[in-house]
Amino acid sequence: MRALKHTTISLFMLTVLSTTVSANTHSHKGKNETPPQINLVEEQAKWAQQQHAQALNLIEQRATFLQLEALLRSAIKSDNVANNAQLYLALIDSLKGYPLHTDAMATYLEARVKTVKRDTPREEVNALRAEIEQFIQQNATHFLRGKLEQSIFTLLSNAEDIQALAQQTPRNLETQIAVLTAQYQMEAANPPPTKDAQPNDKINPLFCPIMHNCGSITPNYLMTPNYGQPGIRKVGAQQRRFIRKRKCSLAKMILKV
């Protein structure tokens, strides 16, 4: 029995000693291992190569951006922006990562707006409007947002979509002029039925902003026997002289003097 106890104790001590020796051996090896060395010259060469490649890419993208601007200017003059849309979009796609990538897309949309005319298919006009609105939503903080919002009014005005233009919310004096003009044109095209074709001595409420903008315009200068009819543009000579004298741009725009 004693021999068994001695044997068990001896085995236990041998196990503890072997574990300790193994741990010390691994610890000694760990201390002696050399950490991986970094070749500074090689890393600097890699960094310089990357910087050079990025610089070349920026130069190429800059050339592409200038090429796109030149092509769009030429296309506006020849009125064929829509015909080469795939080319322009491919150039814009190649500008991803370039600081002016968003500006390039905005320039393309503005070029398309400038070539819209009265006979442009309504589906094309609506599609372009939706594209501009989506672009504005995706780039809400871009500095060109206001200019693109203005381009929607220009788009509807070029397409002579009076109904859609009259429903827009003006954001400045220029867009207010466009909306008021559209609202008046709709009203003039559909005048209320009257029993007698007598001159109307009331002032069109749409002219209230004119009075506010031009100062002391008396009601007599805003009255015309053609009120309520498409012939509102034929204002009298006296009204013309007064408006020109006051240099009221808002009145000139709405009265089409």
Automatic annotation (TrEMBL):
GO terms for cellular component: periplasmic space. Residues 1-23 form the signal peptide. Keywords: Signal. The keyword Signal applies. The keyword Signal applies. This is Conserved domain protein. It comes from the Bacteria. GO terms for molecular function: hydrolase activity, hydrolyzing O-glycosyl compounds. InterPro entries: Lytic_TGlycosylase_superhlx_U.
